Amino acid sequence: MNTSTGYLSVPFRTLLWREMLRFLSVPTQTVVTPVISAGLYLVIFGLSLGDRLPRVNSVPYGVFIVPGLITMGLLNHAFQNTASSIMIAKFEGNIVDVLVAPLSYLEIALGYMLAGVARGFLVGGAIYLVSLPVAGGRVAHPVFALLMAFLAASTFALFGIIAAVWAERFDGISAFSTYIIVPLTYLGGVFFSIRALPPPWGSLALGNPLFYMIDGVRFGFLGASDIPPRASLAIASLSCLFVFAFCVLLLRSGYKLRK
Amino acid sequence: MVASAKTGPPAIQIEGLVKRYGALSALRGISFEVQEGEFFGLLGPNGAGKSTAINIIVGLTRRSEGKVSVFGHDVTAEYRTTRRLVGVVPQELVFDHFFTVERTLKIQSGYFGVTGNEDWLEHLMEVLDLAAHRKKKVLELSGGMKRRLLVAKALVHRPRVLILDEPTAGVDVSLRRSLWEFVREIHDQGTTVLLTTHYIEEAEQHCQRIGILNHGAFVALDRTEKLVRTLDEKRISLYLSDPLSDLPPRLQPFKGVLGEGGRKLTFPLSREDGNLRALLHAVTESGLGVADLEVHMPDLEDVFVSLTSRSVREEGEPAIGR
Ligand SMILES: Nc1ncnc2c1ncn2[C@@H]1O[C@H](COP(=O)(O)OP(=O)(O)OP(=O)(O)O)[C@@H](O)[C@H]1O
Ligand SMILES: [Mg+2]
């Protein structure tokens, strides 16, 4: 009987493994559905309307929209994964298993977060594959795109943890999603360049951390962006770190989880 | 006081533990120790604070005040150490219903940092009668099977302290017996056991020391035999052939109590004086016809009822829960 191996603790790896098993055991909900809905967006905007819509930064609209759709899938599913996993665990009571295990708060946050990121990447990757016939699949700066995607997915996976810790019912998660996630995504430039926005909204978008993430992913894909890529990388990293720190402190405080 | 040759820190040490839920004090400054290798029982009616105390030890509930340590390690400051030392069977049946029995135990092992313990898991499934159900998902198990799976889960990492919060609720008689056999075996191998139960006979049978909680405070805390003896409630009841309306004067010094419409006469019998002869003599002299008699030996249940019902009466609450 061994009690420790490697420098990633066994409890941490177990939490991550358990979380991945959870979403892999329901692949229809977790992967297939989002790919179908992204496929529909692509068909509508890329193929049917694409020719009639203006080019954005000299890129055809059908190509322009792909990084946005990928990021949106990534974010939503990273958020959904952590939020629903923790919510269900709270309801069924088996959150206790994690709460009494010798896991540090950092490991708990990281374990849930990385599983959410994995699910986000699975969905994002699948959307990328679906987009190949429409957009051709060119990625200008793959490493940068992956890095930005990772930051975006991590941030939203962490939001999912926070929402689920706070929410007492599933309504709470929907509210969090409807009032925070959806506006942030739509106003973050998934479907358009913020240059196209009328005055107050264009500047407001600059206060939305998600905007930098989407813009960064778009730079990774298209090689062109509204904001210098270094700036979006810096802002995205800081936002992610901030949310991570908040999440760890929240877990440490025992807020709503430990009576 | 405790028969333990060990000199190390107590397995569990609790000092002045207070837990408040808003205005309610679930624990009002309790203190007790459980020595390594002891079998300790925590009894008390519903809502007495037993689970609260346990949940504080395992980190599910945060204390309001006081000290709680496991083998000398504070349960908050050194939670990673203390949690590896403790295995808990929670009162609620909670599971990941979609995993199989085997996978549940595997994941639980991982959470406690243990790998390569297949033989031990095999043994646990064997003795807890779960081996035949290993491939079943938890949601396919009966209530009693789930309870046994909870026990197995608590033991995957071979904890030095096993905490059982009502482990036998809903478990049938024969399995309850085998469960106790198993827990005793683990205890004999050196594991410290902290038990709560509403089956008082179980506590009396297995626990070396018992603390009785009522409304968040101890009303008794002592070695089991001593606790049983404190009450000294050996009684003799005589069933009379002819009902009496009053106690005959000759019998008054014996503090007899008439019941059942004057047909039953009950006397307390203290162990020391051996006054049984005198009593029987007095009964004969009074010319009472005795149809039958019954001797009532004290047990822990009497102690429990007498100690916990006192404040129930004072606070005007309904009957204590069993
Ligand atoms: N989360 C909570 N919020 C508020 N009060 C609580 C909470 N948990 C427990 N209590 C209260 O604390 C008191 C002690 O509860 P506890 O669960 O420790 O009792 P118990 O001795 O385990 O009882 P039982 O035999 O019914 O399991 C009760 O009055 C209960 O209502
Ligand atoms: Mg309880």
* Overall outline of chain B: elongated
- Percent range for helical residues of chain A? over 70%
Q: Biggest sheet of chain B, open or closed, and with what strands and sense?
A: 6 strands, mixed
Total number of helices of chain A = 10
Number of helices of chain B: 10
Question: What characteristic shape of chain A results from the CA principal axes?
Answer: globular
Instruction: Tell me the distance between the termini of chain A.
Output: 34 Å
List the helices and strands and how they pair.
The complex is a heterodimer of chains A (259) and B (322).
Chain A: H1 10-24, H2 27-48, H3 61-92, H4 95-99, H5 105-135, H6 142-166, H7 170-186, H8 199-205, H9 209-222, H10 229-253
Helix pairs in contact in A: 1-5, 2-3, 2-5, 3-5, 3-6, 3-7, 3-9, 5-6, 5-10, 6-7, 6-9, 6-10, 9-10
Chain B: E1 12-21, E2 24-34, E3 39-43, H1 50-58, E4 65-70, E5 73-74, H2 79-85, E6 86-89, H3 101-111, H4 118-127, H5 143-155, E7 161-165, H6 173-188, E8 192-196, H7 200-206, E9 209-214, E10 217-223, H8 224-231, E11 234-240, E12 257-259, E13 264-269, H9 276-285, E14 290-296, H10 300-315
Parallel strand pairs in B: 3-8, 3-9, 6-7, 7-8
Antiparallel strand pairs in B: 1-2, 1-4, 4-5, 9-10, 11-13, 11-14, 12-13
Helix pairs in contact in B: 3-5
The structure holds adenosine-5'-triphosphate (ATP) and magnesium ion.
Residues 21, 24, 26, 44, 46-52, 91 of chain B line the site of adenosine-5'-triphosphate.
